[in-house]
């Protein structure tokens, strides 16, 4: 399934829940799956007593990847051409995350149609944890 | 850090811009089902393109692909880095330079990925990385710091570009260290306490605002011309609420006074003489007598006042022997 340019209007949006009640275990699994074992994300004692954070927190890349899933579910796999984000708040165990993509424009280069999206991920308090943009090929 | 030290520090860190963090090298594992499955599980992605070999085999591609955002994972060094430490490279050296100079704080702030080509089972992801840029010093919500950005370029076993990743990191002085760093370096930067702020309400704000401009005003009844101080809404003589003001010449005499000894209040300079001063215009004003020994102050003493800046936040009339 893929998106068709004629069915898309700038301003239209797509959103999806990414996770509810994020578990420490999921963060640890992401550490293993991605190879990023920074103890800030996996070792509660290090995160609290050495680094002074209230607990471990999620890899920015985990939030980015979960947001990326919302995008690839929407635009279809093999379609994403660019995805850039800014991590605006940390993501903590217990968080619920929701992501939204809003279509900004559709451009055409050499017969290839590219859709530009603005992407936002928020937590259960409405705080923005990730903000960015993405570009995908559409039919 | 003084200006010279900061210059030397910045020369040092900026020398890392353009340095190679790692030459093009292959990931330890070729793109494979189990690693994709673990990664997709961790982010809760059940797209069959990443998880269902049968579905993938029947699809147009004929094979399973890796999720695009997984691109950087193939080149990660994993647990050995935590267990044995990282082999020194340009990035770890740069981080060390920041740490040595108090910029201990680390926060990943931005990631930007570009995707040129899908990778599927059996492909090998090659990565090379450089330190791409370092910002000027920034005052951020986390503290003073610098952003540095690495640029990783990914390609496959044929040398075809797969994508790029820019990763921006903020190295900052954590707030507790910031206070320590500035006190050892620069004592005068510590905040000097100021006098208790004047309470400014509906009826007296105008008087204090004029004081900030260097003027002492006296309220005058518009109906009967009687002067009054401190400021209040109604004339005590005729009950009129219409008023204007005149500017005092600040000539006056001591009506009564006291010297404050104890307790000493931060922000006030001692010795401290407080006097009720009868102004030439006829109203009384409470202010400090300065410019002479406290012992010299006496009732009936002739004074001349001027409005002065007492501390960083306070303008007040101060009275000197006339």
Describe this structure in words.
Chain A: This is Acyl dehydratase. Chain A: It comes from Candidatus Litorirhabdus singularis. Chain A: Pfam families: MaoC_dehydratas (PF01575). Chain A: InterPro entries: Fatty_acid_synthase, HotDog_dom_sf, MaoC-like_dom. With 139 residues, chain A is an alpha+beta fold. Chain A contains four helices and five strands; from the N terminus they run βααααββββ. Chain A has one domain (5-22, 59-138): Hotdog Thioesterase (Thiol Ester Dehydrase, Chain A, Roll). Chain A is 27% helix and 36% strand. Chain A is elongated and about 55 Å long. Chain A starts with 12 loop residues before the first strand and ends with a strand. Chain B is of the alpha+beta class. Chain B folds into two domains: 3-31 and 66-186, Thiol Ester Dehydrase, Chain A, CATH 3.10.129; 205-321, OB fold (Dihydrolipoamide Acetyltransferase, E2P). In chain B, strands 1, 2, 3, 4, 5 and 6 form a six-stranded antiparallel sheet that branches. Chain B has a five-stranded mixed beta barrel with strand order 10-11-12-14-13. In chain B, strands 8-7-9 form a three-stranded antiparallel sheet, with helices on one face. The longest helix of chain B has 12 residues, at 3-14. The A-B interface holds A 18-19, 26, 29-30, 32-39, 52, 60-62, 64-66, 68-69, 72-73, 77-78, 80-87 and B 35, 38-39, 41-45, 47, 49-50, 61, 65, 67-70, 72-73, 76-79, 81-82, 107-116, 118, 166, 174.
